Amino acid sequence: SAFGSVERTAEFLRAVAEEQGVELAEQFAAGIAFLSRFDEQAARARMNELAGIAAALRAGSTLPGVEILKRNSARIVARAGDSAIKIFLERPANAAREARSLARARTLGVPVPELLGSGADWNATRFLSDARPATRSDLAAILAATADAHDRGLLHGDLHLGNLLVDRGRIVFLDLQRARFLPWVPAALRRWELGY
């Protein structure tokens, strides 16, 4: 929002209300309600913008400011500002599956891109502008990050260098449409995920 995050603004307003006394409680409540409506409107506008970009890409058009990162028969991946948009052409249902997996992984504390929005056949995540593709030289960090993800209950299901980024020294997992979440990941599945 224009005020920064709603949470930070709510903290500020709460502190002012405590400092100034109970008479500000109504103003505090009205301020929070306003910010919530403002954030909801901004989120709806952002979703509409992302849906429009996805529709244009699906139709074969590229809008100004949108860069195609990958295009094949299965999907289109593009960058639009701070967003990475992925359109699932062959298996549209993978969009919903990946959106659920991204949200669940973030809840578990597994490093994945932030989900900004999703539609029937597309997802948009925060583009990690400082990230670089993982390489074999990142093996120690990849093994540690994968062990941590397994400890948190995530089995990626399609783990390879093309589905990993390094963002400020941290391994970030991509392409979670095959991910599974388990109460614990058995040793045999941990080894299978790593290819041995």
Count of DSSP H/I helices: 5
Distance between the termini: 47 Å
Number of strands: 10
Please give the radius of gyration in angstroms: 20 Å
Query: Unreliable runs, pLDDT <50, ≥5 residues?
Result: none
Mind describing the biggest β-sheet? 5 strands, antiparallel
Order of helices and strands: HHEEEHEEEHEEEEH
Helical content (DSSP H or I, runs of 4+): 40-55%
Q: Strand share of the residues? A: 15-25%
Structural class determined from secondary elements? alpha+beta
Strand order of the largest sheet: 1-2-3-5-4
* Overall pLDDT confidence: 86
Please provide a written account of the structure:
Helices cover 44% and strands 21% of the residues. The chain is of the alpha+beta class. Strand 8 and strand 9 form a beta hairpin. The model has no long low-confidence stretch (mean pLDDT 86).
Which features would summarize this protein structure in a list?
5 helices; 196 residues; single chain; alpha+beta; three-stranded antiparallel beta sheet; five-stranded antiparallel beta sheet; globular
Explain the layout of strands and helices.
Blueprint: H1 6-20, H2 25-58, E1 66-71, E2 75-80, E3 83-88, H3 93-108, E4 115-118, E5 122-126, E6 132-133, H4 139-151, E7 154-155, E8 164-167, E9 170-173, E10 180-181, H5 187-194
Antiparallel strand pairs: 1-2, 2-3, 3-5, 4-5, 6-8, 7-10, 8-9
Helix pairs in contact: 1-2
